[in-house]
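Data availability (excerpt). The following record was deposited with the supplementary files.
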Amino acid sequence: MRKFLTLGLVLITAVLLLVACGSNSKEDVVKKTSKKWTAAKGYEVKAVMEIKTNGDSKKYDVNVWHTKPEFYRVAVSEEGQETSQMIIRNEEGVFVVTPSLKKTYKFQSDWPKQNSQGYLINALADDLAADKTAEMKETKNAYIFKAKTRNNHSKMLPSQQVYIDKKTLLPTKVIVLNEANEEQIRITFKKITLGVAKKASDYAIEDFTKTSDTKADNKDSKTDAASTEETDKGDGTAATTSEQKTTDDKTTDDKATDKQSTNEEGNAATSEDTITTSADANATDNTENAGADVDSEDFKTHYPVLKWDNVKLTDEESLQMDTGTRKILSFEGDKSFTIIQEKVKKADQFYLPVFSPGDPADLGFTIGAITDNSISWEADGVSFFIASNDLSKDELIQVASSMVNGEVK
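Predicted structure:
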């Protein structure tokens, strides 16, 4: 009898040990990572963001500062180039700064609340905590979560995979997926430094209204608590260093337009054809449209690459303004909207911040401004404005995002 009791106790002890040494539950990992990513008084992040659009891919360097409670600076530039744009939140509000154009815009916005981005690790922690249906699986080196996104792309890009290193409990990459579960955005973290608290004066707009952010990037960090470096293995796992080791690695012009409403006079014939942005059906038959290319020395017209039934390009105009050529595209049908394009004018010197309505819209490749009925941004030397009484904010962003690498007629 004593022998059986002894054996039973041994078995029970073994089971308890196995449970104690077993894998962490999803809830445990979320709790631990949330505490680690959000408890720090601040952080710095260096990452590379790859955006895939219409078969094309571009990479951007992303540098983030965050100091509690609500100070942020996110600098985004095409890889290998100087900083092209920054979004800054300080005690005065939210600003979008484009040094290359010498332009600054101010928003009355609560960004980034309810508009998380994968490179903001505190917001990423909130994404995981908010999604009670999130799924977690493990590899040898990583916890991999699949969770819902919570930003102004959430309908187009509803889910994300978050890779967390088991040893450091820091994120190593985030993959954002579209409705077809296809990868659209990949954020690879090169360096994460927790415990960095910068002074309020470090977020002053005056420090960033220059043609280069070299001064900003060279500012000293006060604490270096943890960092991570990831090398993509190709098998979905991540190789990381120890937690102790620190490894080195738009804006809106808000122009008043004379053609904002898309419910213009006359009913456009609907069509089962889809918009292919080269607008082949309209381009081949319309000699007036072909004349728009005469202004190619100014800039080339961009068209949205969309596949929406019963939406058709019905009109295309080129107007000669004092500031240059303004091109207007009108789309009508089930979803009507107007696109206005003109060449960006670089200021001779920085002006005082210009107030912009709406909220900052992070399009990945640039930061624009979005309201209930419009979206505007600047990219590739061109200022874009889309207005519609029919499109939702998600659809406005979808049209805007489709034009970045769209065909140019």
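Summary of structural features: The helical segments are 2-21, 26-39, 121-130, 214-217, 280-285, 287-290, 393-402.
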